[in-house]
Design goal:
- By secondary structure, this protein is of the alpha/beta class.
- The protein has helices spanning 4-35, 38-51, 73-83, 154-176, 215-230, 232-237, 256-267, 282-290, 306-315, 335-347, 367-370, 386-397, 405-414, 419-426, 432-448, 457-469; strands spanning 58-64, 66-67, 70-71, 93-96, 105-108, 113-118, 121-133, 139-150, 180-183, 198-201, 243-249, 270-273, 296-300, 353-359, 377-380.
- It has 3 domains: 33-176, no CATH class; 180-380, Rossmann fold, CATH 3.40.50; 386-469, no CATH class.
- The chain contains 16 helices and 15 strands.
- The structure holds adenosine-5'-triphosphate (ATP) and magnesium ion.
- The site of magnesium ion has 4 residues, from helix 7.
- Its cofactor is Mg(2+).
- Residues 242-385 form the AAA+ ATPase domain.
- Residues 449-470 are annotated as: Disordered.
Length: 470
């Protein structure tokens, strides 16, 4: 058995050696930080740090995936950023691919670490995962990332480095992003709204080029969006939340939903489809709001159905069409709850958010929804115009001119045909002559207000069948 003195002296020797190693490492770090580029420094550190991971008085920041109900964006940003730091020297990596993702995502597994250097500061990232038990005895995993560095750099790391990580991850995301559509799914009767957003890839081909709408309005909207994303500092300076609201109104089939998809594809923002009929009360609405991530478009389609909301508010559960058994005060979704939600968007901490309402009947909306400041821009989507028709003809038939264009233009000024109707006619044949002749007949029929102009029997039958489907 070793004596106390020999244990002590072994300990002292060990400590001295440790300090020596530390000294050598920090000496190397000091030299390398002056002479060697960041990338190489990080590589050297990964070799040395792997042998001896502690340097001086260390501080560790813990970045969890969720903070209560809300997703921690710093966690996602760090994960994306760290994907660029992954090296073949790592032993375990997590790989995943969503069914519609076009690339495999590679992330660090728990216990793996990478080193980084930022303005001479050396940093160590480590992926962690803690298993916890819930009330029912089930296991859940809490993922996190830890960032360690010398404590004297705390301020710089928090204020500059993390900002740099976020900016870099944004740039990466913008380059690779597949726009996602989040929706509430079938929650009827579940009453449980926790983590209730499900997501798929948006996969909607709409772009501004392909959209038939008033060219001036289109330009104004694109400029507005550009200004919005550019103006982060401006919003900060004037003390306004970085949010924007659009109301899209017009008859069915004029491209309101397509326009939302075009906006999402243009900005590379995710879309959150907030279907009011699957929301039971104001507090669910608030909870959903908190879990919405930045850089997103929140969509409430057919907002004129807020009339339903008012009924729910006024009439209690027997008027509730969805059969939700809503009783007692404070357990309904109300118009004022919705207004609070919108205003909450304006005061919540989230950034880069857009809210879009669509309606077929602007005049039916509660004036409170239209008050200045709630919706920044009102966009009218209307029946097809000659210039809209040019866009559709180019999309569907790949033509920019045709003998029938003049006649179609004339007819279009006289009848109300939606872009969806025109698009349907143009899809009937790949042959431009046949498709356009069909369109002329369709418009003439509309003009006469009967479905039965000089078509032959076959076409008439076809048309009738289609019209009855409308
Ligand atoms: N302005 C448009 N430009 C190009 N295509 C359009 C336009 N409007 C409609 N379409 C075509 O018609 C289809 C239906 O349009 P969309 O769903 O965007 O209309 P909407 O205005 O949202 O209708 P609703 O009020 O019924 O929701 C689209 O998928 C698209 O193919
Ligand atoms: Mg729509």
């Amino acid at each position: 058995m070793p004596s106390t003195t020999s244990v002590l002296s072994t300990y002292t020797t060990f400590t001295a050696t440790t300090m020596l190693v530390r000294g050598v490492i920090s000496e190397i770090q000091a030299i390398t930080s002056q002479l060697i580029p960041n990338r190489l420094q990080a590589l050297l550190l990964s070799k040395l740090g792997g042998l001896y991971p502690n340097w001086g008085s260390q501080m560790t920041l813990i970045i969890d995936d969720y903070e209560g109900y809300s997703f921690n964006e710093l966690y996602e940003a760090s994960q994306i950023y760290l994907q660029t730091k992954i090296t073949p020297s790592m032993e375990r990596l997590r790989v995943s691919k969503g069914s519609k993702d076009n690339k495999v995502a590679v992330t660090m597994d728990k216990g793996e670490a990478v080193f980084d250097v930022f303005e001479g500061i050396q940093l160590r990232w480590e992926a962690t995962c803690v298993e916890t038990k819930d009330e029912n005895g089930g296991k859940t995993e809490k993922r996190g990332i830890e960032l360690s560095f010398h404590s004297k750099y705390m301020e710089k790391v928090i204020n500059s480095y993390l900002e740099y990580v976020i900016e870099t991850s944004k740039a990466i995301q913008e380059k690779n992003q597949v726009v996602k559509l989040f929706s509430l799914g079938d929650m009827a009767g579940s009453g449980d709204m926790d983590g209730s957003w499900g997501s798929t890839n948006l996969d909607h081909p709409a772009t501004f080029d392909k959209l038939a709408m008033d060219p001036a309005m289109k330009k104004e909207l694109i400029d507005d969006l550009d200004r919005f994303v550019r103006r982060r500092d401006f919003y900060k300076k004037v003390g306004k939340a970085w949010k924007r609201g659009y109301l899209l109104y017009g008859p069915p089939g004029t491209g309101k939903s397509s326009l939302i998809a075009a906006m999402a594809n243009y900005l590379k923002f995710n879309v959150y489809d907030l279907e009011l009929s699957s929301i039971y009360n104001n507090s669910d609405l608030r909870r959903l709001l908190v879990s919405i991530r930045n850089r997103s478009i929140i969509v409430i389609e057919d907002i004129d159905c807020t009339i339903d909301i008012e009924n729910r508010q006024a009439g209690g559960h027997d008027q509730d069409k969805g059969g939700h058994d809503l009783q007692g005060k404070g357990h309904e979704l109300t118009l004022s709850g919705l207004l609070n939600f919108i205003d909450g968007l304006w005061s919540s901490t989230g950034d880069e958010r857009i809210i879009v309402f669509t309606t077929n009947n602007k005049e039916k909306l509660d004036p409170a929804l239209l008050r200045p400041g709630r919706m920044d821009m009102h966009i009218h989507m209307s029946y097809c115009t000659p210039s809209g028709f040019r866009v559709l003809a180019s999309n569907y038939l790949d033509i920019t001119s045709h003998d029938l264009f003049h006649e179609i233009d004339q007819l279009m000024m006289e009848v109300e045909a939606t872009p969806a109707e025109i698009a349907e006619e143009l899809m009937r044949s790949e042959d431009a002559d046949i498709a356009l002749e069909g369109l002329v007949k369709f418009l003439q029929n509309k003009k006469l207000g009967s479905g039965k102009l000089d078509s032959n029997g076959e076409e008439e039958g076809f048309k009738e069948e289609n019209e009855s489907n409308e």
